[in-house]
Design goal:
- A five-stranded mixed sheet has the order 1-2-4-3-5.
- The chain is α+β, with helices and mostly antiparallel strands and about 150 residues long.
- The protein contains six helices and five strands.
- It is globular and about 40 Å long.
- The termini are far apart.
- Helices cover about 30% and strands about 15% of the residues.
Length: about 150
């Protein structure tokens, strides 16, 4: 699927403001789509439209660091050692799924792993659905669950 088509379809479910931090949106507005990885966007589309089939919220209700994070975000700016994450690389988001716990969402995604266009990572034992496409060196499984 072509990137342009993926973004067009995703716009039915998400605004760019939901997927990037408020600093990034303030500076780049709608152009901020450029910072999100195509594999991540494609995976997000499949998870939202074909697997979970229900609203997913990233940045909402005063939260601004659940999607793409920039160097101005407190979660990044406060780091005193090298910090690389799927969030700062435009490959991740933390979501709340309407009508489902994060655990239920993770289980449903695992049950439908065959629909995923790319291998994903999900954070386990948290109250949100962390979803990313950061390649996990040395692992070949379709879904890798990690403890944050």
């Amino acid at each position: 699927m072509e990137r342009r088509q993926i973004i067009a379809e995703l716009r039915q479910f998400f605004s760019i403001e939901e997927l990037v931090c408020d600093h990034t949106f303030a500076k780049w507005g709608e152009s901020a789509w450029q910072f999100l990885d195509t594999a991540y966007l494609h995976t997000l589309l499949i998870v939202r439209k074909h697997i979970l089939q229900r609203p997913m919220m990233c940045n909402y209700a005063g939260m601004h660091q659940r999607g793409l994070r920039c160097n101005m975000c407190p979660l990044v700016a406060d780091k005193r050692t090298v910090y690389l994450s799927s969030h700062i690389l435009g490959k991740a988001g933390d979501f709340t799924v309407d009508g489902m716990t994060a655990g239920e969402a993770r289980e449903k995604i695992k049950k439908h792993a065959h629909l995923l266009p790319y291998a994903i990572r999900m954070e386990k034992d948290v109250s949100w659905l962390h979803l990313d496409v950061l390649p996990q060196y040395g692992l070949e499984q379709k879904i890798y669950e990690f403890k944050g």
